């Protein structure tokens, strides 16, 4: 953005305020999409059946060592 010079206060008040051509919401959506592409979801969503208690415990321990991205994911771990 270029710097504007004014000779008086009246000239400054009469000048138009420059804004970007992008809508703020569209910029926010682009940033969200970029974040999702850089930090994909770590765990699969859904309900899983296990054949034994030992297999379920192994899956639970492996999920705890994985990084959690949000509070909602932390609640599903237990």
Explain briefly what this protein structure is.
By secondary structure, this protein is mainly alpha-helical. 53% of the residues lie in helices and 0% in strands.
The outline comes out as rod-shaped
Radius of gyration: 26 Å
Most strands sheet: none
Structural class call reads: mainly alpha
Give the averaged pLDDT, no decimals.
77
| Helix percent band | 40-55%
Q: What are the low-pLDDT stretches, counting only 5+ consecutive residues below 50?
A: none
Give the distance, in angstroms, between the N- and C-terminal Cα atoms: 50 Å
What series of H and E elements makes up the topology? HHHH
Strand content: under 5%
Give the beta-strand count: 0
Summed up, the helix count is: 4
Structure overview:
With 78 residues, the chain is mainly alpha-helical. It has a domain at 46-78. It has 4 helices and no strands. It has helices at 9-14, 24-38, 53-65, 71-77. The model has no long low-confidence stretch (mean pLDDT 77).
